[in-house]
Amino acid sequence: FSGLYKVVADKTPYASIEEITRKVSIGPTRFGHPCFYSPEDIKLANLTIKQGEQITFNSVEEVNGTMAVNCGVVRNNQSHSFTLPLSQEGKFYECEDDQIYTLKEIAEWKIPKCRNRIVKLSNALHTWDSSNPLPENFDGCLILTPVYEVQAVMKFRKDIVHILSDLDVEVKDITDCYDINSFLQPLSLEDVFERTSKEFPMVAEIMEGPSGSQKPYNLLHTVHKKYQATRVLASEIRSDSPKRHFLIPMSYKGKFKRRPREFPTAYDLEIARSEKEQLHVVATKAFDSPHKELFSVLVGDQFLVQQCQTSEVLYEGSKKVIDVLACEQILSDTYKKVLLPMYMEGGFVEVIHDKKQYQLSEICKEFRLPFNVKVSVRDLSVEEDVLAAVPGLQFEEEITDSYLLISSASSPVESWEIPVYRLNMSVHLLSKDVQAIVPPVTKTTVEEITEEQYYMVRRYENKNLHPPPRPPKKPT
User: Fold this and answer.
1) Which of 352, 359, 371, 472 counts the most CB atoms within 10 A of its CB?
2) How far apart are CA 88 and CA 14, in angstroms?
3) Whole-angstrom distance, CA of residue 103 vs CA of residue 144
4) For the chain, what are the domain ranges?
5) Is the pLDDT assigned to residue 441 strictly greater than 80?
6) How many Cβ atoms are within 10 Å of 419's Cβ, its own excluded?
7) What confidence score (pLDDT) does residue 466 get?
8) How far is the C-alpha of 308 from the C-alpha of 317, rounded, in Å?
């Protein structure tokens, strides 16, 4: 079932660290680092964990002959590591989790053994149609109860068999009687990607493919190599929803023209300002300044953005220093220097003087993202350029994603890039002793992603790319 969900923290405490390790998934992936807190101080040899302090559980390992959990706390942006033995007792509660997850991720990582999990549908994907099992405008919580099944492979079958865990049958362990290598070994794309680079190329066969996929996969294909590639995450510019979202490869051969950007505050103007060109904007919303030293804006006022600086203002009878944005107001025959408060909530739209056509790589090199464009020359190397029909695009950020390069083993005319983390597929390896060959011409295409995939990509974006919080409205 599609959609993204927020996990509601379990109110039932765990009685020991050992109970947590038995019931909660702790592992090396980004999902395997659960967080807990204790209502009482925990005194260690060289550190005291304060009550209510968030403890991140990173891994379980043996320390000096005793099984323990590697943990960490963050204080004043500094990380402190320590271990807690499994014998440590007390009350440990789950911390609130502000991340969003798919149902698959929750089922695999976020449902403790012998417990249910309460989740809330994220507003980010709050869409409804007649096939949705939830009531329209549903805004409540769901209780998830896992139903387990065993996935198995049979000696003379290539597909994966799904066996319900409550099936009333007797089984006998005959592992010692059979060669395990005679059975197919299902691997996910993540499993294949984790192989060392020396093991490529390899020949693989699909055992279970993605449902509803129209991509040109053959049953047998050569996996040439694994690698990471840069994509530009772009969204359709439109006021209503849903928007379309795309991952654009740097090899895209179309050209773009700029489209005006919109800025809700003066602070956003400062973020967008660049040394390459002077930012020219028109006010779309009036603003009355509470300080006589600063400028009041009328709809239609035009400005050239200069720089951020400080200025003294009179506030409640005393002088305060605040951040302001120095601009030049464009008048009919002259320019007037003005100061806008950085917190100013108004509205501005960019005036574009640049008529140049840009390649994707040029935009990423010369301008700050987000950046608004439209396709001016479509990519002639593909039959249908999906971006050409979109009236406007916002380039949001550059991301790095993991791919496998594959081609048909029977007819290696061209090769495709397979996204490792957005395609659910099970394969098994037929041979790892494949003669190293030059991969055929790579077919790198623009990938249109779903709303769910878009939020999953944004979820792991580089937090360092975010600007700092906007300044307060009142001088401090």
Assistant:
1) 371
2) 11
3) 9
4) 5-144, 262-350
5) no
6) 17
7) 45
8) 25
Q: Which amino acid does the sequence have at 1? A: F
3 state DSSP class of 345: strand
pLDDT at 468: 46
Answer yes or no: is pLDDT of 98 > 60. yes
Neighbours of 316 (CB within 10 A): 7
Per-residue model confidence (pLDDT) at position 215: 45
54: which DSSP letter? -
Name the amino acid, one letter, at 144. Answer: L
Residue type, 6: K
Checking phi first, is residue 17 left (phi over 0); if not, alpha (psi -120 to 50) or beta? alpha
Per CATH, domain 262-350 is 2.60.40.10:
no
**Rounded Cα gap, residues 92 and 101, in angstroms:** 23
Q: Are 328 and 303 in contact (CB under 8 A)?
A: yes
Residue of 274, 332, 334, 331 lying closest to 306 (CA atoms) = 274
DSSP secondary structure letters along 448-469: EE-HHHHHHHHHTS-GGGSPPP
Q: How far apart are CA 13 and CA 39, in angstroms?
A: 10
Q: Are strands 414-419 and 441-443 parallel, antiparallel or unpaired?
A: parallel
Burial classification of residue 228, based on how many CB atoms lie within 10 Å of its CB (0-12 exposed, 13-18 middle, 19 or more buried): exposed
